[in-house]
Each structure stands twice: as C-alpha cells, then as structure tokens.
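Collaborator request, handled under Task 6.
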Amino acid sequence: MDLEKRAVAADLLHEFCWRADMGMGDRIAELFTDDATVDAPHFQLAGRAEIHDWFSARAKPGERKVRHILSNLRFDERADGTMGVTAYTMVTMLLPTGEAAKVAVGTSTDELRFDGQRALFAARRLDIAFEGRFAVEGGAA
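Structure tokens returned to the collaborator:
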C-alpha cells in the first residue's frame, strides 16, 4: 500500500472538482493524458483537446453554480504502476434562470497514470444512480 501515491490520486480528483466548481474549465484538460476519455451519461469525450473544449465552454462566469462532493474513495494499485480510483460522487448545479437546482448522485471510476510524483486521468467514467431537482430559496446563482 503506497499511501503517498493514494494521496496524489485523491489530490487529483479533488483538484478536478475544484476547477469545475470554480469556473476554471479551461484548466481541467491539463489534468488528463493526451489520449484520455471521459464517459458520462450525457456526454462522451475523447482526447485532451475535446476535453478542453467541452469544459471550457461550460465555465462561463455566472452561468451556473456547481459543487462536486466526493466520498468513499477506493484505490486499486496495479502492478503496471497505474491506479484505479472509485468514489461516490454528488454534483449539484444551480442555474441563474431560477429553475430548481439539479442534483446527480453516482459513482465515478477513474483510471490514473503516474508521471513521477504527478497523476493524470487516463479515463473517467460516471455512472448515475439517481438524479433530480430540488427547490432552492432564492432560486438564482
């Protein structure tokens, strides 16, 4: 069990969430390998350039308020030096339109590659267990 490698992996997942939540979508692709993939129920992306374009378009200031919450991280250290990480994920999104906020709860499954002391996503997959909407007082971002 390599605790340092697990800490680096957890930091990568948290950094992804932080950048997504703070509107830094234009800086998310640098967390991925050149040939990385993202597979989610509402979109699929292939390659760092496509990942950059998609997340950059979603990072427009004032368009949405997003928060990611991760828990129950499980690490699968592999003999080839890669690592799988599975986590429960909750994403909430509040749009400035005043409509009810969106929430999705599911499981993220990540494949990580290490470059020295740095980890990068080689693949991310999100499986949604349930999603819906909830009323928010004030209703706007």
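The cover message to the collaborator said: "Residues 3-21 form the longest helix (19 residues). The mean pLDDT is 91. Please let us know whether this matches your experimental observations."
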